[in-house]
Amino acid sequence: MFLKKVYTLVFLRNETQILLGLKKRGFGVNKWNGFGGKVEQNETIIDAAIRELKEECCVVVNKCDLKNIGHLEFTFEGDSLLMDVRVFSASNYQGVPVETEEMAPKWYGYDEVPFDNMWPDDRIWFPYMVKNKLFFGKFHYKGFDTILNYELQELKSMETFYKNKK
Ligand SMILES: Nc1[nH]c(=O)nc2c1ncn2[C@H]1C[C@H](O)[C@@H](COP(=O)(O)OP(=O)(O)OP(=O)(O)O)O1
């Protein structure tokens, strides 16, 4: 039995670049990633995605501009936690990303994404996101650096995926 916690992960993107943030504290510190965090009690996943993006880089995004593009699950050897991460992409938003206490934002060209300083799984599923393919990935880690095994698949529709998910 796993203890599931739901997280959001938002990427702002345009045709040539993607916004990443260098995590300054907490889980994943010193790694580049999208913006997000835990979904709080009595909060919808989409509201959490909007809140975390605003808290972490001061950018405001409307609900209708956030597209759910993927679902990731992370488990860790010897740990009952299952991280359920909902991945979103947006190309319309208000404001200019600024550094906060949590994240230092930076735009990267798609061919200069700093995978060496990111979660090891990112290298595996980013190509799906970059090619605008919907995806589902499951990664089982030993510690935080070693992927023991994983599954990754392209999805036709997120709605169908969630409808069929137990
Ligand atoms: N293996 C992994 N690969 C990845 O790409 N993103 C991951 C990941 N594991 C976690 N994440 C993302 C999900 C989420 O956006 C973030 C972790 O969220 P945090 O723990 O920072 O949540 P909070 O901001 O709510 O934390 P606190 O306020 O510090 O409790 O990292």
From TrEMBL:
GO terms for molecular function: 8-oxo-7,8-dihydroguanosine triphosphate pyrophosphatase activity; dATP diphosphatase activity; metal ion binding. Keywords: Hydrolase, Magnesium, Metal-binding. One of its GO terms (cellular component) is cytoplasm. It holds the Pfam family NUDIX. GO terms for biological process: DNA protection. The keyword DNA repair does not apply. InterPro entries: 8ODP, NUDIX_hydrolase-like_dom_sf, NUDIX_hydrolase_dom. Residues 3-133 form the Nudix hydrolase domain. It comes from the Eukaryota. PROSITE patterns: NUDIX. Its EC number is 3.6.1.56. Its cofactor is Mg(2+). It catalyses: N(6)-methyl-dATP + H2O = N(6)-methyl-dAMP + diphosphate + H(+); 8-oxo-dGTP + H2O = 8-oxo-dGMP + diphosphate + H(+); N(6)-methyl-ATP + H2O = N(6)-methyl-AMP + diphosphate + H(+); 2-oxo-dATP + H2O = 2-oxo-dAMP + diphosphate + H(+). Belongs to the Nudix hydrolase family. Oxidized purine nucleoside triphosphate hydrolase which is a prominent sanitizer of the oxidized nucleotide pool. Catalyzes the hydrolysis of 2-oxo-dATP (2-hydroxy-dATP) into 2-oxo-dAMP. Also has a significant hydrolase activity toward 2-oxo-ATP, 8-oxo-dGTP and 8-oxo-dATP. Through the hydrolysis of oxidized purine nucleoside triphosphates, prevents their incorporation into DNA and the subsequent transversions A:T to C:G and G:C to T:A. Also catalyzes the hydrolysis of methylated purine nucleoside triphosphate preventing their integration into DNA. Monomer. This is Oxidized purine nucleoside triphosphate hydrolase. It comes from Vanessa tameamea.
